[in-house]
Amino acid sequence: MENEPLVLDLVEWIAGRPRAYEEVMEAWRTSCPRLTIWEDAVDAGLVSVASNGGSDKTVSVTGKGKEFLEKAGRTAA
After folding, report:
1. Residue (of 68, 14, 64) closest to 38 by Cα position
2. Which of 8, 35, 48, 65 is 20 to 30 Å from 16 by CA-CA measure?
3. 51: how many CB neighbours lie within 10 A of its CB?
4. C-alpha dihedral sign at 34, 5, 47, 15
5. In the β-sheet with 19-20, what is the strand arrangement from edge to edge?
6. Which phi and psi (to 5°) does residue 24 adopt?
7. Per-residue pLDDT reduced to its tens digit, 30-62
8. Which fold has domain 4-71?
9. What is the helix, strand, coil percentage profile of the chain, to 5?
């Protein structure tokens, strides 16, 4: 994965606690086509987005994301 260090940072940040989708987008979305951190994490199955009913969505780390953190020597909360 080309942006692996930044994807690792994103997954670690989300692992601290489930985050509101809007919070994640505000902190990690970019319009730069070379920095596809959010898209890379979703495409790799490292994070998931779940609806809380209505328009609220929560982003959390998947089991695969926790393994990704552990292999990198980082702690999955």
Report:
1. 14
2. 35
3. 10
4. negative
5. 19-20, 57-61, 47-51
6. -65, -45
7. 767 677 888 899 999 999 999 877 778 999 999
8. Arc Repressor Mutant, subunit A (1.10.10)
9. 45, 15, 40
Distance separating alpha carbons of residues 10 and 49, to the nearest angstrom: 14
- Residue 41 is which amino acid? A
Residue 42 near residue 24 (C-beta atoms within 8 A): no
* Amino acid, res. 58: T
Total residues belonging to the chain: 77
Give me the half-sphere count of Cα atoms (radius 13 Å) on the Cβ side of residue 5: 0
pLDDT in tens, 14-29: 999 989 998 998 888 7
Residue whose entry in the numeric block shows the structure tokens 């609806």 = 51
